[in-house]
Amino acid sequence: MPRLVLASGSRWRRQLLDRLEIPYAWQSPDIDETPHSDEPPEALVERLALTKARRLAEAWPEHLIIGSDQVALFEGEILGKPLDASTARTNLARFSGHRVRFLTGLALLDSRHGRERVCHETYDVVFRRLGEDEIARYVDKEKPLDSAGSFRMEGLGIALFERLEGDDPNTLVGLPLIRLCALLREAGLDPLG
Question: From residue 93, how far is each of 55, 77, 129, 142 by CA, in Å?
Answer without folding.
Answer: 36, 15, 9, 16
